């Protein structure tokens, strides 16, 4: 199957559809059985297949046949999905403030490597030059 342009905003997915898509991002590609095995409180195989069919109809998932098996993969780039998820998280939990989100994330600076600290420092320097 050829990938279609996604017709659905990622924010409009049902929670289980989001879980299936997240699992596909993590696995790269998978069969319905593999997806079912990766879900908490897994629904029936039939339900997983229906969700995959809905995601395919929305243009978010495609598949290829491998003998009798269908192997599914996301059509959306992981980076796009990551950006959408982060934007939603910032909007919902941080009142739309990216700086509040960043400050919250940076409270545990002990976990940051020297390279990450250097990268953050460079980002702040560039932002100050712009503003």
Short summary of the structure?
The chain has helices spanning 15-27, 32-38, 45-57, 78-93, 98-105, 114-130; strands spanning 61-66, 69-74. With 131 residues, it is mainly α.
Give the low-pLDDT segments: none
Strand elements, count? 2
What is the CATH class designation of the largest domain?
Mainly Alpha
Q: Please bin the fraction of helical residues.
A: 55-70%
CATH homologous superfamily title of the largest domain:
Winged helix-like DNA-binding domain superfamily/Winged helix DNA-binding domain
Whole-number tally of structural domains = 2
CATH architecture designation of the largest domain: Orthogonal Bundle
Distance between the termini: 47 Å
* The CATH topology of the largest domain: Arc Repressor Mutant, subunit A
Into which percentage range does the β-strand content fall?
A: 5-15%
Shape: elongated
Average pLDDT confidence is 87
CA radius of gyration = 19 Å
Please provide the ordered H/E string of secondary-structure elements. Answer: HHHEEHHH
Number of helices: 6
Main β-sheet, in a few words? 2 strands, antiparallel
Counting helices, strands and paired strands, the structural category is mainly alpha
